[in-house]
Amino acid sequence: EWILWKYLVGILFALFLLLFALGIRQLLKQRRPAGFPPGPRGLPFIGNICSLAASAELPHVYMRKQSQVYGEIFSLDLGGISAVVLNGYDVVKECLVHQSEIFADRPCLPLFMKMTKMGGLLNARYGRGWVDHRRLAVNSFRYFGYGQKSFESKILEETKFFIDVIETYKGRPFDFKQLITNAVSNITNLIIFGERFTYEDTDFQHMIELFSENVELAASASVFLYNAFPWIGILPFGKHQQLFRNAAVVYDFLSRLIEKASINRKPQSPQHFVDSYLDEMDQGKNDPLSTFSKENLIFSVGELIIAGTETTTNVLRWAILLMALYPNIQGEDSFDDLRIYAKLAKMTIFHSNEEFSILVLKNKKSTSRAEYHRFTPKNQLTKQTKTYYICFSCLGRRHCLGEHLARMEMFLFFTALLQRFHLHFPYEVVPDLKPRLGMTLQPQPYLICAKRR
Ligand code: HEM
Questions:
Q1: How many Å apart are CA 202 and CA 304, to the nearest integer?
Q2: Where do the annotations place heme binding (predicted)?
Q3: Can you give the residue ranges of every domain in the chain?
């Protein structure tokens, strides 16, 4: 029995030493390196994670406050991961434009590694894989999308389906979110799969819901903790597990969609993005360095769908909310741009700089320059009517590749809606205007009545 005790005490002591060593290692990792930008003090082990992700304030509000104390460039400790926050047009331009090569990477966070192995497009490391995938996506969006003369009429066709559904409510209150998501994602679907999905296609809707949920989960404190301490992944519960489960369902669904889209494929005669990708895969068959693969195809398709849907949907949801909030301007022939962009995208996707292994967040508060343009709903096809709704992170190599498409979509959907309906809140009750954190800042769910003009 005595030997057993000695054995047990030995194990406990070894465990204690191991934990002690790991603790010291973590605390050393959390020390701000010499010359690193200043920033708020964090807690031992978890650094600033709690203040950033779990406080009552939204992250951009917290960061704006820190920037008032520590300056335009400051640092945060995300549990041993050093992050630098850039807050101001000049500093963001300096890094993302003048030093674009250095800041074009994405950080290898455990979550991104697990989700896309740093492949695909949006989260890809800056290298050949990203160059190949970005080139293919940009060309496909131009060739199968806004580069086609008929593409505007394809969007207009979708706006008709959209308007028809709104008509069925006959001015009764309803939440536009699902409808806008379906309609907007169909524009991207046309380019990616060559077809739209009906609004009754609940499988596709479910996939988008899971994807959006994942984007929200990715911004949660417990997933930040997973990034700092990836061993948390072995725990069978928690938000990270929910995220992994959702991702498995989404990838499975996407791979089936891709298979279906390629059934009638004629090699070298692509009809949509998936066809073009498969052609690239064929061409790269004998190239051991080719980055085109079935797996990267799934990741890219998923990223393009969500990047194109969440953002544009939420701009339209804000626009509708603001129209109902200021009903007088709905009747006017033209009005000044809404500056919706200021609400939507306060930060951008993480960038990284390999040399210093830091993260770069852009707090866009001070980067979005106010641009007012006349907006003329009645004049929807007049190209001179410039509508700048949003800041697309037009700076640097990773700038949004869907900007042109998004502008077209937002303009056509918004004008189609305003031309036919007057929007107001049911019983004139104004909903909560506090934004909700997801991939972008989105409005809280709200009901709206669309009355035929
Ligand atoms: C209102 C709509 C949109 C907004 C506000 C928006 C905003 C952004 C922002 C802020 C970034 C990050 C840029 C950076 O890392 O510095 C981005 C990247 C990206 N966007 Fe958009 N976007 C919109 C629509 C779209 C659409 C319609 C698509 C395509 C279907 C798209 C595809 C992408 C992709 C693929 C990236 C990653 C680019 C890369 O890493 O090389 N976006 N977008």
A1: 20
A2: 400
A3: 31-103+127-452
Choice between 392 and 152, residue whose per-residue pLDDT is larger: 152
**Substitution candidate for ligand 1 out of 388, 392, 405 with most atoms within 8 A of CB:** 392
301 lines ligand 1 (CB under 6 A): no
Is the pLDDT at 125 greater than 90, yes or no?
A: yes
**CA–CA separation, 247 and 114 (whole Å):** 10
Residue 400 annotated as lining a ligand binding site = yes
Asked whether the beta carbons of 380 and 411 are under 8 A apart, the reply is yes
Cα(282) to centroid of ligand 1, in Å? 28
| Residue having the nearest C-alpha atom to atom 43 of ligand 1 | 400
Question: What's the CA gap between 311 and 331, in Å, rounded?
Answer: 27
Q: 31-103+127-452: what CATH class?
A: mainly alpha
* 386 CA from centroid of ligand 1 (Å): 20
What pLDDT, in 10s, does the model give residues 38-67? 999 999 989 999 888 877 788 888 888 998
Closest-CA residue, ligand 1 atom 7, reads 392
Q: Are 29 and 80 in contact (CB under 8 A)?
A: yes
Tell me which residue has its CA closest to atom 41 in ligand 1. Answer: 398
pLDDT at 379: 45
Q: Contact, 227 vs 111, CB < 8 A?
A: yes
Is 391 close to ligand 1, i.e. is its CB under 6 Å away? no
Segment 385-393 mean pLDDT: 41
**DSSP helix/strand/coil, 433:** coil
| Structural contact between residues 422 and 453, judged by C-beta atoms closer than 8 angstroms | yes
Of the given ranges (44-48, 316-320, 341-345, 381-385), which has the lowest mean pLDDT?
381-385
pLDDT digits (tens, 9 = 90+) for 146-188: 888 899 999 999 999 999 999 999 999 999 999 999 999 999 9
The pLDDT value given to residue 354? 59
Ligand 1 centroid to Cα of residue 254, in Å, is 20
